[in-house]
Amino acid sequence: MVKAYGRGLWQGLRVTWRNLTRRSVTAHYPDVEPDLPPRSRGVIALQEENCTSCMLCARECPSWCITIDSHKEVIPAATDGGRDRSQNVLDRFDIDYSICMYCSICIEVCPFDALHWSPEFAYAEGDLKDLTHDMNRLRTWMDTVPPPQALDPGAEQGKELDAYERTRATEEGL
Amino acid sequence: MNGTEVVFVVLSLLAVGSAVLAMTSPQLVHAALWLVVTLGAVAGCFVLMTAEFVAWVQVLVYVGSVVVLVIFALMLTRQSGRTTAEVTGNRWTAAVLGLVAAVGLGATMVAGFAGERIEGRRIGTAASIGEALFTDWVLPFEILSGVLLAALVGAIVLSRSGSDR
Amino acid sequence: MSEALDVLLRCLVVLGAFLTMPLLVGQMEHKAMAHMQARVGPMAAGGFHGWAQLVADGVKFAQKESITPAAADRRVFELAPAVALVPYLVAMVAIPLGPFFGQGVLIGQDLDLGLFFVLAAMSVGVLGTLMGGLGSGNKYSYLGGMRVAAQLMSYELPMVLAAASAAMLAGTLSLVGIADAFEPWWLVVQLPGLVVFFVAGLAELQRPPFDAPLADAELVMGPLTEYGGMRFAMFLLAEYAGIVVLAALTTVLFLGGWAGPWAEQLGWAWTLLKIVGVSFLVIWARVAYPRLREDQVNVLAWKVLVPLALAQVTLTTVVVVW
User: Fold this and answer.
1) Structural domains of chain A, with CATH
2) Domain span at residue C103?
3) Residue C148's closest chain B neighbor by CA?
4) Number of domains making up chain C
5) Domain presence at residue C179
6) Which chains form contacts with chain A, at 3 or more CB pairs under 8 Å?
7) C9-14 contacts at long range (C-beta below 8 A, 24 or more positions apart)
8) Is A19 close to C289, i.e. CB distance below 8 A?
9) What is the pLDDT at residue A1?
10) Closest in C113, C135, C150 to B56, CB measured
């Protein structure tokens, strides 16, 4: 009878005692950097050389947070009678992180691997306008992009790597 | 006039003064709190007269319980916000009656005990009071317990008769 | 040493203990409660695991503005923290610490009626929270004040009865006498009394799980709603000083005070150790249990604790007479 009456009381004490005697799970953030999992999405970095202003990322972004301005530059023909080449040059590539929802669509869609994820997360600002990162700032994030993760055991590598290795093998063979 | 008597006079004046303030204060909560000061001063007087046990029981029961009950009753029965005493035309009659009662009691005390000194000082420790209570004063003690029991039962009956049984 | 100097020294030591021990209990509460909730508590103040958190809190409270609401009863509102705090200081004067290296018992002043003195002082402290509740001019404070009055009145009875049973067993009302007369088999005989006294004491202090008057979710902060700055700090200090007084009383009355090995030299250390232990139990009870509803509080007082306390008094009477 007593046991039936006091069980809740006993359990309360037991649970709290267990918690007291075990190490607490609190992460001591500013003193200890968090242990982020691989492929963490912190901030998007831009590799300008790869970008051709195809506008795929700006068009596919569900939040419309990417703004791109570019102009065509003419590269004169290399040989006489040859065709002039034209190249897109980026004037402006802004990502507004106050709107960005970190869905990763822009990075998946970019055909030229110009956008990459970086695990950096500490870029809070005091002014909303400062949350729009321009081209130069997006370039600086590239320094924090980690190398590509190791493949999971038993996974296939991407088709572009298969093609590369085939080409290398052919070249070596030659 | 030694130190004890000076302190006694001061405490008595404090008790009388705060009692007057308790009676005349328009704010009922203030009146209850002045009552606390009065009862505390009376407890101090008890200590000076070596009746320590009675003094601390006075604080424990009167200040700790009775005044809290008074304030509790105040809170339960007043409309919120209006804690001022109602002043009616009867106050002059009440003042006259109070004065008559005070003069009558004072006259009785003076007539009965003026000029007497208490023989054989008894220190008011718990042991001596317990002894007196259970040997000399047993019958009044038991009758008082009967009276308290009757009051308790009566209070329960009264509070229940209003609501459904 | 002359009489006056001795009295002054004792008063100063008691005042010092009154100002530091609640802070130690408060720091223990921060850390123990945190670890029981799988977190760490204050870590930044003072560098080493936040030991200076309450010092920082004291400085913070001292520099805050104490606002008196316009609708408040000014003098009642402003006096309430003092009325809540001073009785615990007064109560600490009569509580013994134990023998100090053969020099006699460390105590402010040993009173023959020490137990009654301490209980009376604690019952005056009730008025402080009540004044705060009534004088704030705030509906939530008013409701909290009513809950305070009902709760503290209800729990004084079992507390006094349990303390009386301890005094009966020892044959004296002096706290030093009760602690001196302790024998180990009393722990068994007085067990219901210990439980009743501890639970009733928790309710007197309005500590969770009996903090229905201060229930955040229902009453903002009950009688303490309108208080800020130093006045609020005084109420908080009163709560923690109350925990120290309750722990000290439980130790002296039911746990034998300074009983233990080398009691003549280290009695004071044993008492302090037991006070820390009982304070830890108070903190543990806060973390482990949810808040009791107002009607459950009253049911517990009148239907459980009072009969238990009366049974304990009967048992003690039988033991003493036998």
Assistant:
1) 32-147 (3.30.70.3270)
2) 69-321
3) B72
4) 1
5) yes
6) C
7) C10/C93, C10/C108, C10/C109, C11/C93, C11/C108, C13/C108, C14/C89, C14/C92, C14/C93, C14/C108
8) no
9) 47
10) C113
Residue of A nearest to C209 (CA): A9
Interface test with A, best of C30, C31, C36, C289 (most A CBs within 10 A): C36
**How far is residue B159's CA from residue C121's CA, in Å, rounded to a whole number?**
32
For residues C99-106, average pLDDT = 74
Backbone angles phi, psi at A65, to 5 degrees: -100, -5
The pTM of this model reads 0.85
Q: Provide, as residue numbers in chain A, all residues whose Cβ is less than 8 Å from the Cβ of C42.
A: none
> Which pair of tokens denotes residue B36?
């606390």
Residues of chain A positioned with their CB less than 8 A from the CB of C50: none
- Tell me the pLDDT tens digit for each residue of A54-100: 999 999 999 999 999 999 999 888 888 888 889 899 999 999 999 99
Considering only CB atoms, C40 lies closest to which of A9, A22, A24, namely A24
Inside any domain, residue C154 = yes
What tens digit of pLDDT does each residue of B70-92 get? 888 887 887 655 566 677 788 88
Cross-chain residue pair C134–B126, CB shorter than 8 Å: no
Q: Which amino acid is at A51?
A: C
Which residue from A13, A22, A26 is facing C284, i.e. has the nearest CB?
A13
Mean pLDDT of C96-115: 79
What is the DSSP code string of A9-43? HHHHHHHHHHHHHS------TTTS---PPTT---E
Q: With beta carbons under 8 A apart, name residues in chain A contacting C287.
A: 16
User: Across all residues in chain A, what is the average pLDDT?
Assistant: 90
Averaged pLDDT for residues C35-63: 89
User: What ipTM was reported for this prediction?
Assistant: 0.84
Read off the pLDDT band of B164 (50, 70, 90): low
Alpha carbon of A120: minimum distance to chain C alpha carbons (Å): 25
**Contact (CB, 8 A) for C287 and A16:** yes
